[in-house]
Amino acid sequence: MKQVAVAVTLTVCLCAPVVAHHSGSEYDRTTVEIEGTLVELVWQNPHVHFGVRTTDASGKTVVWDIEANSLSILRRTDATPSNLKLGDRVKVAGAPSRQTPNKMWASNILPANGREVVLGPGIRPRWQASADGAKSTWVDGGSDANKTAGIFRVWSTKFGEPGGMWWRPDYPLTDAAKKKRAAFNPLTDTVAPGCRPKGMPTIMEQPYPLEFVNKGDTILLRLEEYDTVRTINMKGGAAPAAASLLGYSQGRWEGNTLVVTTSRISWPYFDPSGVPQGDSSTIVERYTPTPDGTRLTLAMTVTDPATFTQPIELSRTWVWRPGETIKPYACVERKPGRG
Q: What is 12-118's CATH superfamily?
């Protein structure tokens, strides 16, 4: 069974989840198409995986290592693996790896005798008129909210929302930080660490829902990715001596805005591109629900003299989506066993 490769322009909808949430620099901005036998199917967090056995141009048998969006992304679409079976002949299209032969970030998969599946919100069917996965909640929300609920509810990412993702391509870096970023290798360093949790502020990029829970003296900020829980101390007091991935967070109210100051962070990265984070980094977050209750805005200020020559301002927005919940992330480390 021979491999077919076609180079086309990669769609914006496919690029965005790769660049924003994954080590996007590994993957090209063209699409290849392969055809072969499905020998691995892993439908779980942190990423869906496929193995497809085919033959290369020289006639040698190869198995493609194929990665796709997370289960948490796909279960908010109507994508399903129910019509994908090991041993099926399939077509797969996606972005090839720049560094690893026979590796791909998949956008579409089609079994020979079944229905096409698109593997991310906004991706169009490639081979059939319609596909599983095309229906999505990722562009819903932001209306008909309960205005009295305030901040204590579940908030959702809305793809296409202004301020939906927040990393910047350039920062005012110190010379030392420039050297560390230049030496960063996305394949061997740990900004995207499989099932090992991320720290602050990188964890706040996660596109899944978050929830504020009022516990009186503390507020819990629940993030779906890695089943993360940040504890915000509302009583004040000194920070502990030991640093941690999420740091120590103190909160206070300014009207309906929750202001959170976080320090003592041990996570070594500022963002997924390998910008480092110094030991003295301090993060101030200002969470404000809009008056109509439909949106939550975050304005973040990061002060880190070891990394930045001036404070960094970042912002993003979430929306209220009726019926949304924080689902168990249940991350599972992949154990490759392709045939």
A: Nucleic acid-binding proteins (2.40.50.140)
The widest CA-to-CA distance across the chain, in whole angstroms, is 68
Q: Which CATH architecture has domain 147-319?
A: Beta Barrel (2.40)
From CA 65, how far away is CA 53, in angstroms rounded? 9
Q: How confident is the model at residue 278 (pLDDT cuts 50, 70, 90)?
A: very high
Cis, peptide link before residue 201, omega less than 30° from 0: yes
Q: What is the pLDDT of residues 71-81, one digit of tens each?
A: 999 999 999 99
Top pLDDT among 240 and 148 is at 240
DSSP per-residue string spanning 76-130:
TBT--STT--TT-EEEEEEEEBSSSTTEEEEEEEEETTS--EE-STTPPPSSSSS
Contact predicate 87/114, CB 8 Å: no
The residue to which tokens 């056995």 are assigned: 53
Range(s) within the chain of domains with CATH label 2.40.128.20 = 147-319
Q: Which residues pair with 233 in a beta bridge?
A: 218, 250
Sign, CA torsion 135/140/146/152 = positive
Name the residue type at position 11: T
- Confidence band of 2 (pLDDT split at 50, 70, 90): very low
**What confidence tens digit (pLDDT) does each residue in 296-331 have?**
999 999 999 999 999 999 999 999 999 999 999 999
Contacts of 161 (CB under 8 A, 6+ apart): 142, 317, 319
293 close to 145: Cβ distance less than 8 angstroms: yes
Report the Cα 38 to chain-centroid distance in Å: 26
CB 67 within 8 A of CB 336: no
